[in-house]
Amino acid sequence: MERAQKIRDICGRFRILVIGRANAGKTTILKVVCDSTEDPEIFNSQGRKIKSTVLTPSEKRGQHNIENEMVFRSNPGFIFHDSLGFEAGDTDELKKVEAFIAQRSEQTKLQDQVHAIWYCIPMDDTRPFTKAEESFFSDCGTGRVPVIAIFTKFDAQDHKAYRALRNEEVPIENAGHQAALRAEQECQPVLNRIYESRYGPKSHVYLRDMHKPKAQCDELMEKTASTLNDEVLKLLFVSTQRNNLKLCIEHALTRDIMREIVRFGKTQTLDKHASNVGSHGMKKDDIFRVHCGVMLWFPHIVVNDSEHNPCGMTIS
């Protein structure tokens, strides 16, 4: 089945703009997303590889360029652009982001557009939601590009909630179980302010313990996929990410298998004695179509639709 490859040929790679202050945990998140321990390779807008310290605490602001593309060798299907985030009273970076989003939205080719925005808000900061965040969600329209608010380093809030519970004389074990929920409840006023803004996010996620080995960001993948209204982009995103097999299975089931079951139940009138009909009543062509449709959601699996090996699979 060549449809998945054709989609990649048309769309190129999935492009994400990552916004957040220094030390917001952006690099850590991207490494988990791409299952990498190495820093990304940096390319300029002409596609030439450059040396850079973008996204590291020691970055030199003069070398930063939002047009630069960050690509991880472990998963080159994603392209990331970095904005340094907005400091209080600094409107220059906000204008750069607005201009970048506008310029990308005017591109005629889907592969050159921004497909999603991840806005990282570090929750280990004493003031996680500042005037800078208010400015973005109030003034920066992103058009059809969905924004996912990522509350990074949220384990800091868990620890804070745990201490509060212990001060209230909640037993240690109970406090440990209740801390995460208490932390999210304490964050609700901030969350409400963001969603009530003129350009509020489409979704949000709390990320904890991303610095630890075997850290996962399944919820970020799921929330991002859920905000994509374009089916081609959704397929591109789900099949590009490699660390959430459950997400691939869910989309394959809900968007291909169930759709074909409904279609079959409503429209099929079959002759079970025909040579192209299986014992279950479905035509072999229908089975093949379902099989190929399902496999589109799974990364790096090639469906061989040759005459000698119908519905065969190989891992690329």
From TrEMBL:
Q: Which InterPro entries match?
A: P-loop_NTPase
Q: What is this protein called?
A: G domain-containing protein
Organism of origin is Rickenella mellea
SUPFAM superfamilies, sorted: P-loop containing nucleoside triphosphate hydrolases (SSF52540)
